[in-house]
Amino acid sequence: MTRPISALRGAGEARLQFALYAAVCLAIFLVPLAVGDDFLLNRYARYLVLGMVAMALSLSWGYAGILNLGQALSFGLGSYCMAMALKLGTVPVHTGSDGLPDFMVWNNVETLPWFWVPFHSTAFAILAGIAVPVLVACVLGWFIFRGRVTGVFVAIITLATLVVANLLIIDRQPYTGGFNGITDLAQLSLFGFTFDAYSKSTYYLVAACLTVSLFACLALTRSKAGLILQAIRDDERRVRFFGYDVAAYKMLALAVSAAVAGLAGMLYTVVMEFASPTFLDVSLSLSIVIWCAVGGRQSLLGAMLGAILIAGMQGALSESEAFLDTWMLVMGAIFVTVVLVLPNGLAGLVSAGAHRLAAMLASRDPRRGETVHLGKPAEDRP
Amino acid sequence: MDFFIQQLMTGLSIGSILLLVALGLAIIYGSMGVINMAHGEFVMLGAYGAWAMNAYFGLGLLASLAFVFVGVGAFGFAVERGVIRFLYRRPLDTILATWGIGVMLQQAVRLFAGGELRYVEMPSLLSGTVSVFGVIVPGYRVFIFLFVAALFLVTWFLMFRTSFGTRLRAVVQDRQTAMCFGVNADRVYSLTFAYGAGLAGLAGALVAPLKSVSPEMGGAYVVDAFFVVVLGGVQSLFGTVASAALLGQMSGSLAYLANDTIAKALVLLAIIVLIRFRPQGLFATKVRS
């Protein structure tokens, strides 16, 4: 049985993990030196954003045991916040008075709705892109966890919430652009600098946000709160008996995960240059779960790399003639196999290898023979 | 008065289709604790089965029902043997694995049957209309209603009046003890899963004439059916009926009061609140945990 990566607790192993994370981030920053094509860079930036949202899910699912099937909700909300600001900043072609967005004009909306007004400020939009998902996650978390709802029912409630939000956004076309989403956006400009979606600058923006959030989440998992979250995942009742407020910790995990997903959503709008209801639909949300599961739900880095790997493969396979019809079949098969054989994903495999190596080294050095293992092998409870 | 009967009939019609799809899911989830995300794809397979029977063998819809039931049931049996049985101790992972199976089924059907919409003809015997309490209702809807009622009775009989049903309930209550008494738990589970899958296949074949048949059609049904099961309460067949009727009437009347989308959102919100306060469902029977 593979052990969770978080069980690597020795100081040396902690340093090794830190070095591994840093090396991957460095490699991400070096990519533009090798790739000159702006079109490719845009696509890679897209994969990085998806990696970020999978990493956010790993925090709540892998570390706290909350299977959030509505992860795309936070992602989509962030993406719409950014799109609203960029829409108001665009050079209007078909507008009514006061730079009203074109789709509102088509839907006979006469004045800008009140909740659109503050989005004239980009700073407000960025704040909202994180605050709105966090707020939603807190309310939802309070609602779910205060009632001690667990396991499968958490998955159902989060999924249902996502479907409701998706239906509402499609239905309220005059205010949200409905099925078409929000298109024809301006480019993001911060501190007088404009980020062109097809350029190195946007790639670096994404890479920087990814690095910062990855290390922030790593710090959280290594803190006391992170340990309590893992304990909750392994045996919730025992942690409650110790006197910890389990619901509050779970809400924390959900909120931090939502913040990262919201940030990723904003970046996705910048990279894709539109926002659409497909950013918060069920199939994207389940895809995020899959990336996370294949990469390794109990490893932030694993989940992130899993997303980048699979999304990249999807991009490549679905474009090549030979795999045009079969790549979904291939993905499904890979996924079923991973769930059956590798419950901790590819990261679990790597971690098991590392442990075997460490054990071999330890047998030579008697002082390092004792390894402390936190947590049981991953096993979901109903 | 006519209006109410009309509304009631719409609700009953929606409810009977919901129950038809949910029954198989309820049996699988209720007795095995497996959340079968591929259930919608089993429904889709049934619809394609009915279409293929007609296109290749010239069989009518009613004649093909038996073949569809056996075919999809056999497929369900294979899925249980090949994948599900390894995951009984990891219920959350069954969600993921069955979703993967669903994706593969969709794509496989798209490859072999083509992605375009297919149509299954309604049996000519049932294509007329019937007058029920002074309201004109399509005959086929009445047929589905009666068929579902019959299917439910058969299922109830199977569960509570046959030795297979007794063994299944024994395994659900206490697997170890049941096995000590010589019940082959693995076999009981496989057959149960197969039966649930077969029911899904029947559902697909029966709804095929009402809507067009496409590889993606399952998704629309599985979510609704799942909520029926959760609302009804695990392991309660009558709860499933009651909640299908309730959800059917709710969707029917909300769709009349607001638009379809808002109706759906409201039903979902009601379900979310319900799960929060009664995760065991509205009509749960008492079970020792």
What is the element layout, followed by pairings?
The complex is a heterodimer of chains A (382) and B (289).
Chain A: H1 11-34, H2 38-63, H3 71-88, H4 102-106, H5 122-145, H6 152-171, H7 173-176, E1 188-190, E2 193-195, H8 200-222, H9 224-234, H10 236-241, H11 246-272, H12 282-295, H13 300-319, H14 327-341, H15 345-364
Antiparallel strand pairs in A: 1-2
Helix pairs in contact in A: 1-8, 2-8, 2-11, 2-12, 2-13, 3-5, 3-11, 5-11, 8-9, 8-11, 9-11, 12-13, 12-15, 13-15
Chain B: H1 2-32, H2 39-57, H3 61-82, H4 91-113, E1 129-132, E2 135-138, H5 139-161, H6 163-173, H7 175-180, H8 185-207, H9 217-232, H10 237-257, H11 260-277
Antiparallel strand pairs in B: 1-2
Description:
The complex is a heterodimer of chains A (382) and B (289). With 382 residues, chain A is mainly α. Chain A has one domain. Helices cover 67% and strands 2% of the residues of chain A. Chain A contains 15 helices and 2 strands. Chain A has a two-stranded antiparallel ribbon. In chain A, β1 and β2 form a beta hairpin. In chain A, α2 crosses α12. The longest helix of chain A has 27 residues. The radius of gyration of chain A is 22 Å and the shape is globular. The N terminus and C terminus of chain A are likely disordered. With 289 residues, chain B is mostly helical. Chain B has a single domain, classed as ABC transporter involved in vitamin B12 uptake, BtuC. In chain B, strands 1-2 form a two-stranded antiparallel sheet. In chain B, β1 and β2 form a beta hairpin. Chain B is globular and about 60 Å long. The N and C termini of chain B lie far apart (47 Å). The model of chain B has no long low-confidence stretch (mean pLDDT 84).
